[in-house]
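Reply to dn_fold:

You asked what the input looked like. This is it:
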Amino acid sequence: MNTPLRMALGIVLLSTLAISATPVDAAENFAEAMVSKLKLGEPIQGKVAILFPLVVPKAPGDAGVVSQNTAEDLTFAEPEFPDHRYAVEVTNPTDKPVLLLGGTVLVGGKRDRMLRHDTIVGAGKTVQVRALPAASSSDIRKEPVPFVLGKQLAPVYLRRKADFGGSSTTVTTFIARNLDFRNEGDQRKSLAALGSSDVLQKYTAEGRTKLDAALKGMKRPNGEIVGWILALRGRLQSFVVFGDRQVAEGYRGAFLLGATYSAAAIEIQAAKKNVPMPGKDDPAKTLAIVTKEAQQLLERIQKARYKADGSQPEGAAGHRLLMQLSGGARGRVVGANDKLVHMAVYPHDPFANAFYGSKIDLENPDLQSDPTREGLAELGRKAKDGRRLSESERRLLRRVGGGRTGGGVPGGRRR
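and this is what came back:
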């Protein structure tokens, strides 16, 4: 092969692999470099949520990836030979890589889906992306219909479960528990039906609008907003960072809608079942506690370690990393061209797990009055693992358990 031809082929090959073969070490460096610059902005407190903007002194460089909400002609289909059950085939005919967020709801096919993980689909590429069913088995269509993107991302609880090992019933169980919120005449047993519920959207509209407007119009004399920490019901739910402000803008509305409608559902359900809501009685106290916890979470993330994520689908662009943190938090990063594209960290939330994860047990200590705002079962796990408890935490466990042991909670009742 002559030299000019060999050079030309080499240039083509390099351009093709430009965002698909970055070494893990470089990825670790860019992720650490990004989070090390983050500062916590002034909190924004709504009716059901508290949002902490995450600010960097200078906007990061463009990673060359666009949001799925701004990409044109993106298509989704049910593959004839799926790599995984419920996988979705995504084709990107555009000239820019597209970020698909985990938790994206797809309405269509023979059955609605929810994407499990963040994935970057390269320009002109087709990739199979793992998904979970987002509609009941009774909502399977006889013939597939074209997929369309849902207006909101899935609730944070479902995103965390799906990203880190949720089963095929994770979303359908959530749907079954909230069917009463569907609009009158809406017979769909789907996540999309819950997301469009007038009751839930009206419940959160004022607070959601406040959060959205504050983020959009916030003065940024000291830097750029590239993400946020979200707290619902006085508990930290997620830590989200985007490497590009324009990409963050593309997802902000969908993120807030998905997060707050699930918060409305849990508050209304809890009120019906007489379950006390953590963090609701004293907003000022809750804000002070959550602000401290948000700062501690940021500091923990800035000390996190990273390892390669082997679950990235074949043909996906960029690279994906798992984050290793203490305290039960789980995190994942996607990047391209040695730049962070999206990072999501999900702190452990014992209240949401107790409410959504199994049949609601009103005697579950994580659903009871919790003045310290730390789940009682979580305190029990800390004690069992040998982690240090404060005197007030020990008193709380003794008071709840009455001095008996069992059930995985020191001083708790046997089941």
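Residues 21-63+154-355 form one domain.
Hope that clears it up.
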